[in-house]
Write a structure and sequence with these properties.
The complex is a heterodimer of chains A (495) and B (526). In chain A, 45% of the residues lie in helices and 13% in strands. Chain A is α/β, with parallel strands linked by helices and 495 residues long. Chain A folds into three domains: 159 residues, Nitrogenase molybdenum iron protein domain (Rossmann fold, 3-Layer(aba) Sandwich); 113 residues, 3-Layer(aba) Sandwich (Rossmann fold); 162 residues, Rossmann fold (3-Layer(aba) Sandwich), CATH 3.40.50. Chain A starts with 7 loop residues before the first strand and ends in a 12-residue tail after the last helix. With 526 residues, chain B is an alpha/beta fold. The chains are: A alpha/beta (495), B alpha/beta (526). The interface between A and B is large, with 77 and 81 residues. β8 of chain A pairs antiparallel with β16 of chain B. The complex binds iron/sulfur cluster (2 copies). One iron/sulfur cluster sits at the interface of chains A and B. One iron/sulfur cluster (SF4) sits at the interface of chains A and B.
Amino acid sequence: MTRRNYATVNPCVMCQPMGSALAFKGIENTIVLYHGSQGCSTYMRLHLAHHFREPVDIGSSALSERGAVYGGRENLKKGLRNVINRYSPKVIGVATTCLAETIGDDVPAIIREFKEEEGIGDDPEKDIIIVPVSTPSYGESHVNGYIKAVNAVVRKFTEKPEDEDKTEGMEEKSPGMKEAPEMKKATNGKINLIPVESLSPADVRELKEILAEMVGDYIFLPDISETFDAPLKEDLPKIASGGTSLSDIADMPNSRASLSLGVVSKNLAVEYLEACHGVPGHNVPIPIGLSNTDRFFTELVHSLGCPIPEKYQKERGRLLDSMVDVHKYLYGVKAAVYGDPDTVFSLVTFMLELGMEPVLVATGSKSRDFEERIRLLFGEIRPELVPTVLDDIDFDTLNDMVKKCKPEILIGNSNGRYIAKAEDIPLVRVGLPIHDRVGAQRILTVGYRGAMELLDRLTNTMLEARDTFTAPLQAHHAKKTASEPGKEQISEGIL
Amino acid sequence: MKENARIVNTLKERQPYIARKQSMEEGIIPLSCDNNSLAGAMSQRACVYSGARVVLNPVTDAVHLVHGPLGCATYTWDIRGAKSSGVETNRNSFTTDMKEIDVVFGGEKKLTMAIDELVELYRPPVVFVYSTCIVGIIGDDLKSVCKTASEKHKIPVIPVQSEGFKGNKSDGYKAACDALKQLIDPGANERRNKVESSTKEEKAEKKPKINILGDFNVAGDVWLVKPLFEKMGIEVIVSMTGDSTAESISRAAEADLNLVQCSGSMTYLAKWMKEEYSIPFIKASFFGIDDISLALRSTAEYFGCEKMEKKAEKILEEETRRIMPEISRIRQRVKGKKAAIYMGGAAKALTLIKGFAELGMEVVIIGTQTGKKEDYEQISYSVRDGTVIVDDANPLELAELLIKQGADLMVAGVKERFIAYKLGVAFCDFNHDRVVEFEGFDGFVNFAREVDASINSPVWKAVRQRTLEPAGEKPAYAEKHLPQILKRSEQLETMKTTEQGMSRKPEMLRKTSLQAAQDSGVESPV
Ligand code: SF4
Ligand code: SF4
C-alpha cells in the first residue's frame, strides 16, 4: 500500500464554494457570484452542468492581477452591478473563493458599501438581498460550504436586528451553550425541512411529495427540484424557475418544528432556528433505506400528530416484499461506499439491513464524527463486522483500501469508475458528480420508493456481475474465486 | 466606420465585443477582443491555469501536479478526453491540497515533499508543477523548488506559472509552451543539422520529419492524421501534445518542419522553434476535406519532392472517393441549415467554417473565447455578410443570438450545450467531451454524422409542442402557427427578450428539417 502524506491523488471532495452554489441554487430567483478569479466559477459551472445537464450560470468578480494586489472591492461591486443589471435577481449569494480569502477582502463590508452606494435596503419585498458566505477551500469541503450557505440564507431572512450580537460568532459553534430561549408558540403550522447535504432533484421531489401529503404545509430549503431539473418549456428564463420562496424562508421561524436530514454533520440552520427563534429542531438521518425512512415518517407523525397515509403504508409493504425477494442475492455481499458523510451513513444503514457487508466506508470530507457514527451504527446492527472507516481520503487511498478490503461492489459517485475498472468491480452510481452516465438528476434514493429503486439497482448490478446465464461468466467467476479463497459463498447455487 | 449597432441586449461594456459582418462598402466593424473578462458578465472562459492545463495535460507520462487548494485539481481531473497509446499517468489528478496552514506559512515545503512522493510512486520522466491563484499571492518560489527537485531526482521538474488571475486562458497557453520548451532537447537539433550538412546521398536517404503542434488527440484524432503523413513518407516525430511523452517531445528539434494546427496555443512555440532551431512552420488543419487537402499539399510542396506530391494527391484522391458517398448523403440532409460556432480558440472556429461549407451549411454566429485581432479579421473574411461575430460571449448573449440568428445547430463545449438544447437548437460538441474522432477523413465522416443526427433527430419535432393541449379544445400550437412562421425576418420581430429571459414562442419555432430542405433555395458555397 502506498504511503502519502503530502500529495493528494484524485481528490474525493469538491471545494467549498461549490457547496454554496448547490445551496443557493435551491432558492427562488437567486444568482450566485463567486468573489475571486474567473476560472473557479467556470470550472464549477462545468462540473454542475455535466452532472445536472442544465445550463448553470454562476458569476465571477473576475479578479485580475490588479484586483489581487489592491483588493477586489471594485471588481466585486462591478460584478454585483452587472449581475443585477442582466439577471434582475431577488437574491445574490456571494461566496468567496480561495483567492479572495487569501487577499483578505472583507466581503460583508464591501457589500454594505455597495448597498449604500446603490441605495439598496433590506426589504425582501423590493430590495435585492445579498447574502455573503465565506468559503475558502483550503479550510473545508463542499459539504461545509453547503451547510454554511443554507445557514447564511436563513439568518439573512430571519435575523431580527436585535439578534445580531446575540448570535455573533455562532456560525461555527453549537448554540447549545446559549441559554434556551422561551419556546414560542408556533404560528404557521408548517414544518421546516433542511437537509445537511445536497440531495438529487428527484430526492427533493419525493420528500416534498411526502410532506405535502402528510403535513400539507411545509418549507423545504433549499429546493433544487426544478432549478437543477427544469422542464423544457416555451421560454428559457434567465434564472431557472423554482426554488424555495423568499417568503417561506422568512416564515421559517414561525414553523412548529424543523427537521434536519442528516446526523453526522451539524445542521447550522436548524440549530440557529432553535436557539434564536425557538423552533424545536429534530435530527433524523437522510431517509435512505427502510429504518431511516421509518424514522423520518415516525418523526413526522410525532411532530404533527397525523397518521401515515395508506399510500406510504403500501409503499413500505412493497419495499418489504422486494427486500424478501432479493435477500439471498445481497446477503453477505461485500461493499465499499464513499461520498458525503451523511449520505454514506444512510446508505450503509440500508446495506446492513439488507444483510450486505460494507467492508469499506469512506468520505472525502474531513469529519470528526464520521467514524464514530459509523461504528455506532455497526455496533447496533451488526456488531460482529469491523469495517474500515475513513474520512478525508482521496481516490488513490480508496483504491488502496479497495485492494485490501476486496469489496464486490462499489457505491458512490462516478469518479470511482477508475477503481471499478482497474479492480474489475461493478459501480453503482450515487451522489455527485455523475458525469459518465445520464440521469443523475433523477436518481432517487430517499423514501420507500427510493429504497426500492436502490435495491433493484444493487441487486441487478450483482446479478449482472455474476451473470449465471452465460457460460463465459463461469470462467470469469473462476478467475475471481481462484484469486480469492473464501469467495465460494457467492457461487451459482444461490441463484 | 459604422458603430456597432446593438445586436443583442447586453451590458454596455460588452457591446464592442459583438459585431455583425457587413458588406465591404459598409466598412469594417471593429471588434474588441483579447481583454480580461468583465466582472459579473458570466464569461465562458476559464483561467490561466486552465489554458496551461489543457495544453499540457495530454502529455501522457507526466505527473501533472497542481500546487494549490484542492478544487482547482478536482475540476480538471481527466478533463481533456485525450487518448494515450501508452501509460496514462496524465489521467490522474495530483494536487498539494493546500490547507490554511500552508497559506499562512507558505507551501514550499509541502510542495517539495509532494514532488518527492509522486516521483517515488510514479517514476515519471517529467513533472509539471502548476501554480494556482493563491500560490501567486502567498509567493511560493516555484522555480527554486522545482530546480532543487530536478537536481535531486534527475528529471525535469518544470514550473508552469499559471496563477489564474494573472491574465486569461491565452496566457496559460504561453505558460504551457514555456514548459514545453524546457523539454525539447537542443541535442536533437544538432543531430538534424549534421544530416543537413552531410553529403547529397545522405540527404536523399533521410526521411523528412515533422512535428504536429496543437493536436491533442481528443478521442484519438491524431491516430487518424499521422498515418496520412506516414504514407507520404514523412515521419511524425511528435504531436504536441496529443499522445506525446517526455521522450517524444524531447526529440522535437529533429524536425524539418512544424505543422501548427491549434494556432492560438502553439504559434508561440512554433515561432520560438523557428528562431532557436530554424525549424519553419506552416499552419494546417486536419478537419474537413478541404483543409486536410491543403495540409497535405502544402507539406509536400514544402519538401519540394515530386514523389511526395504525387503520393499526397493519390491519398487525397483515394480517401475523398472513399468517404464522398457518405458525405454527399449527409449533405443532402443538412444543407441550408444554419450553424453557430463558439469555440475556445480561433483556429478551430476557422476550420469549422470550411467544414460546414462542405456540408452545404452556413455559419450565422461565430465566436471564440481567446481569439486575437488577426483571428477575427480572418474570420470576418471567411464568413458571409450578416454573420454575427462575438468575443468572450456569455450565456445570455449566446441564447439571444441563437434565436435571433435562427441557428439550427451549435458547435461548442459542455456549458453551451444545455443552452442550445433548452432553446431547441441541435448541438455538437467539438471540445473535450466528444468520444469520436473529428479529424482526418473518417473523423470528418463522424462529424457529419453527428451533425445529421442532432439536426434531424425526431426529438425536435416532439419538443416543438411544449404544452399538451388535448385535441377537441384547441388545435396544437405548432400546427396552427407553422405556415406563418417560416420567414426568418418575422422571427426576428417576434423575438422577445423579456426581463425574465428568452422566450421562444411557438410562432418562432423553425421549420422542420424536411421543409427546410425543400424550400432552401440557398446553394451551398462549395
Ligand atoms: S481556488 Fe479554491 S475556490 Fe477556486 S477552484 Fe480552487 S479550490 Fe475551488
Ligand atoms: S483558483 Fe485560480 S487557478 Fe484555480 S481554478 Fe480558480 S482561477 Fe483557476
